[in-house]
Amino acid sequence: MALRENHVNYSVSNDEIKKLNEQAQKYAEKLSAVLNESHKVIIGQQDALQKILISIISDGHVLLESVPGLAKTLMVKTMSQIFDVNHVRIQFTPDLLPADILGTKIYKNTSGSFVTQKGPIFHNFVLADEINRAPPKVQSALLEAMQERNVTIHGETYELEKPFLVLATQNPIENEGTYKLPEAQVDRFALKILIDYPSKQEEIEIIEKNSSTQTNTIKSIINSGEILEIQKFNKKIYADRVITEYIADIVNATRNPKDYDLDLENMIEFGASPRASIWLMRTAKANALLNGRGFVIPEDVKAVAHEVLRHRIILTFEAEVNGITSDKVIDFVLEKINPP
């Protein structure tokens, strides 16, 4: 594999790039084993599994969205088992309370004092199943944990153990008994992954797999210490200034489309937030790492652009009426902004 892509001018030496490449390739082999292990249980959905892995590498939370029955919960549960970390599933329901997630203080008669009873949020991987079924006050209870990696219970703040990731699922077709996630909450998710139907051949495999008595045992491949090690190395992946400018142009184009000759002024109400720029860089580095590279190329940015931006672009009513989706807007932007 070539150390450099000839359309990007790097400001570091070949030796530095070579060292990063060698380390990236070692981690990429281990991460490839994670994907192979997940396919013992999950049929197809290669892209969705890779994006979940990218969210873990880049230390970002992920929101999975699809119609029922496409293995959203199974994907997250499987990943939690492959990564040797403590994990929990919280089934979000309309009667859930913030204390059911964060914890509370309870009075002990024996000691005559209050003690803190920590909630299920104190796990490494938290599966927030059907997150949009819980009311806004419960959804908001996750904000501090997702952003600050802390939890405040009755005025006392507790630090969450690392790695810490919230992996949430939601069903977009049901409106009854659901509460739309507020924009502030959605923006905390690094990626929003849309899961599509399997192909016909994959469907046949799913039927056969679920009709047999054979069971596959998932084994742990990476422990929590190795996850932190990979996350730390991901920050060292080299990204040249031209990549940074490319990301800034993409995000700025969603806010000021007219400056880039994009006819989207009446389609976008609010462009992507600064978090979009940060996560485009972090996840582009993770994509490079998955491909065994120690440096970022424009294709890495394009590979994660839809998942990073689709939930951060607020469209106008006119756009929705005309069938324009945030993914189409992202397509227009990526076509218009020339990569370095």
Description:
The protein is of the alpha/beta class. The chain has one domain: Rossmann fold (3-Layer(aba) Sandwich). 45% of the residues lie in helices and 16% in strands. Strands 3-6-9-1-10 form a five-stranded parallel sheet. A hairpin with a 2-residue loop joins strand 7 (150-153) and strand 8. Residues 1-9 have low confidence and may be disordered.
CATH homologous superfamily title: P-loop containing nucleotide triphosphate hydrolases
Cα Rg? 21 Å
Structural class based on helices, strands and sheet pairing: alpha/beta
What's the overall geometry? Answer: globular
Task: Give the overall average pLDDT.
Answer: 88
Q: Can you tell me the residue ranges where pLDDT is under 50 for at least 5 consecutive residues?
A: 1-9
Q: CATH topology, anyone?
A: Rossmann fold
- Supply the number of structural domains: 1
Largest sheet: 5 strands, parallel
What is the CATH class?
Answer: Alpha Beta
